[in-house]
Amino acid sequence: xxxxxxxxxxxxxxxxxxxxxxxxxxxxxxxxxxxxxxxxxxxxxxxxxxxxxxxxxxxxxxxxxxxxxxxxxxxxxxxxxxxxxxxxxxxxxxxxxxxxxxxxxxxxxxxxxxxxxxxxxxxxxxxxxxxxxxxxxxxxxxxxxxxxxxxxxxxxxxxxxxxxxxxxxxxxxxxxxxxxx
Length: 181
Fold this sequence. Notes:
Probable RNA 2'-phosphotransferase; transferase; 6 helices; Ptrans_KptA/Tpt1; three-stranded antiparallel β-sheet; globular; ADP-ribosylation fold; Arc Repressor Mutant, subunit A; 2 domains; 9 strands; RNA_2'-PTrans_N; 33% helix
């Protein structure tokens, strides 16, 4: 599968496994899973046929490991805007985590901290490079350092998704520091 097709398949899977399953007539179970055969049939019925080989390649080759396959089922690893329970246990975070953003969001972040917005959780990275790439999707990136160790000591709960993204409900502003160059 060429790179352009893989990007299209990956975006299609993300849209329907994270945000709009009903748009193509699939139903996610409470853990976010759907039968692969049902997903492929729905995609074809809605004008975007995906072969099983293309799906397997999109899952395996995705650098962010956005999808998980378990037996005959598939789900998005995190980032849902529809109600799902990924069944992730609380985990002790590393001392610092990172969040990529852009300058136009800084004023609100300094006042309100990081909020999940339409998602269920705030997404945090273990390294500055990943946070920089995330922030760059919306413009010139800025990286915020999150004092995850202090948050954890103060009772905030963290979970880590199958693809290594750290999740928490919110990050109050007192735990944030703007990373300089």
